[in-house]
Structure formats: structure tokens, C-alpha cells
Amino acid sequence: MRVVIVGATGNVGSAVIRALAAEPAVTSLTGLARRLPRWEADKTVWKRCDLRSADGDGPSLTELFRGADAVVHLAWLIQPTRDPAETWRTNVLGTARVLRAVSAARVPALICASSVAAYSPGPGDHHAVDESWPTHGWPTAAYSREKAYVERMLDTFEAEHPDTRVVRMRPGFLFSRSSAAQQRRYFIGPLLFGPLARPELSPVVPDVHGLRFQVLHTDDAADAYRRALVRDVRGAFNLAADPVIDPSQLSRIFHARKLKVPPGVLRAVMAGAWHGRLTPASPGLLDTLLRLPVMDCSRAHSILGWQPRRDAEETLRDVIDGLRHNTGGPTPPLDAHPPGGRLHELATGIGRRP
Question: Quick one: angle between helices 11-21 and 218-230, nearest 10?
Fold first, then answer.
């Protein structure tokens, strides 16, 4: 089986490369990325590809996909949240280019990364939702809007290409120790210094109404992608580990007491930090977080035979330890010390004003 991975050097992509390199059914991997890594992965050939622009002087996407048994589409730009037109070019227009190339190259299978953020707000009773729950996202966050838009694109693609096997992966928040430096650049910025990312130094955690979310270790997500590739499956799969994280769980992880904080107050603090260029995380992300449904992952368990090896608390402790030590990985997106400075200002816009 020859597999092409679009966005092969990020948090998920690097884990998928490792998982597929160890899969006997996979004979060769082509990893596509904007910035090529020095990492020499088994079975893998690296090719430069930038979804933000049309095919340039190098091979077209169609040429890169031709002869592939499957394409795994993972490329996604989270930052800059201050420039939604830029993220739209990669996430939506770039996905449109991938879909056209999959069709033109007649690739038999497409595995596409979606997200829990594609879902509409969950029921008020926190009842777990399956993959049939509406995917209209939440309008104030570009990330959620774009994930929902891509879901509509996949609906159209599936209707027009019934012979192509399409799988959508909808994971919770994906963390690993090797992604800690990247997560810090994307969501935290200079508000958190590595040594302070220690549970024993956190006296309180915010107890905010609606704060419930699911997480998954990136390696466990990669195992689900591997299983979806080698099995004749279609449709969407929710992916998350137990338990669901809420203020009580955070209080136990951080050995801290809970402090009641109204959602509006927390949003105002985030908005002030975002507008003050102190953090790259927009207040719209909080709006989305507080409305996420709890996902029922039984379809992945029964059809893929998938079970996460790490629970949610272990995964959070893993990334927290990584934040403390500013750990990274062997690719440009995961680099703990990227060109341009430790805070990666060119990606986040922190400290820059128009």
C-alpha cells in the first residue's frame, strides 16, 4: 500500500508517519509539507508542498497523488488567529485543491482530519453525541467555522465520488510531550513560562460553567488513522480518551482548588490578553470550548477495534511535563527552538502591531 500524507510534519502527521512506517501493509509513504524536515523516517520520502497556493514549478498535487492507494489529509493552519483570511487559504482553499487532486488521480481512499470543533453545540444535559450530531461549528472561532465548512465540502465530495472511500476523523484535543513547544506557541504564548507549567505551582483552576472537553494522546489518534487505512471502512469516527476533563479533573491534576469564574469574566480576560498581543489564543476559541459536545466514541471502538492506550489524565500530564521542559520533535512545526525566536512571532503575531 502506497500512502501520501498531506501535512506530514505536524503533531498528528509525525505520529501518523511513525504508525504507518510500522504497519506491514504499508510499503511506502510520501510525506508532503511546506518545510521539509531533516528527520529520516522509515519508508518515507519527503516532498515540498504548500496548499496556500496553486501548483508551482514542482509536481502538481495530482502528480504527487497518482498511483497512491490512499491520501491522508492532515494539513491545517491554526495560527494566525488574527488573520482568518490566511487560515482560510490553507484550510479551506487548500482542502479544495486536495479534493480535486484526489479525484483527478483516482485515489481509492481519502482519510481526512476533522475535529470535535466541527460539531454544533452539544445538548444541555451533556449527553454524549455520536457521529450523526450536526457539524455546523461555532461562528466566532475561525478554527471551528473552517472545520465545519470542510465537513460540507466532504459531503459534496462523497456525493459526487461514491467510489472513493472517505473517512473523517473527529478527535478531541490532541496532545503529546513532543508537541508541547508547538502547543505553547499556538495557544499560550509568553503567558506561560516552562518552569511554571508545574501542577504544584497552580493554586487555583477556573471553575467555569460549561468547561468540559475531551483529549487524546496523538499516538493513539495515529493508531486510529492506521486502522482506518488498512480496513474497508467509511464515514466519521469520534476519537477521545476517558475521562472527560472538567474543573474537578483539572483540580486533581494540578493539586489546586477550584475558583468559580463566570464565563464572561474569563472571556474578557482572554480578549484583553489577545488584543494586547500577550497570547495567540483568541476569545472565540473559548466560546467554542464552552459549547463542545461530549463525544460517544463507541463507533471507533466497535468498527476500528480501536482503544486508546493512555487515558486523558495521563495525556494531560504528559503535555504539561513537556511545557515545563519546552520539548519538541524532529520537524519544523514541532521544533522547540524555531527560526524567528522562541515565541515564533511570525506565526502568531504576538508583539507585532499593524
Answer: 50
Phi, psi of 288 (to 5 degrees): -65, -45
pTM over 0.85: yes
- What is the distance between the alpha carbons of residues 202 and 129, in angstroms, rounded to a whole number? 33
DSSP codes of every residue in 51-112 = TTS---SS--HHHHHTT-SEEEE-------TT-HHHHHIIIIIHHHHHHHHHHHTT-SEEEE
Report DSSP state, residue 22. T
Going from the N-terminus, what domains does the chain have, and what CATH number goes with each?
A: 2-173+215-239 (3.40.50.720), 176-213+244-293+311-348 (no CATH)
Report which of 323, 315, 77 is spatially closest to residue 180, judged by C-alpha positions: 323
pLDDT one-digit tens code per residue, 78-117: 988 889 999 999 999 999 999 999 999 999 999 999 999 9
Rounded Cα distance between 219 and 86, Å, is: 29
Length of the chain: 354
Give residue 133's Cα distance to chain centre. 20
Nearest to 34 by CA among 16, 9, 13, 55: 9
Q: How confident is the model at residue 288, as a pLDDT? A: 93
Strand partners, 110: 71, 166
Q: Which three cell numbers stand for residue 315?
A: 495525556
pLDDT at 351 over 50: no
Percent of the chain scoring above 70 in pLDDT: 90
Give the N- to C-terminal CA distance of the chain in Å, as an integer. 48
Cα distance between residue 287 and residue 51, in whole Å: 28
Residue among 77, 168, 187 nearest 115 (CA): 168
CB-based contact 167:110 (threshold 8 Å): yes
Distance of alpha carbon 291 from alpha carbon 122, whole angstroms: 6
Three-state secondary structure call for residue 188: helix
Report the chain's C-alpha Rg in angstroms: 19
Q: 240 with 116: CB under 8 angstroms?
A: yes
Nearest to residue 26, comparing CAs of 1, 44, 54, 63?
1
For residue 264 the three cell numbers come to: 464572561
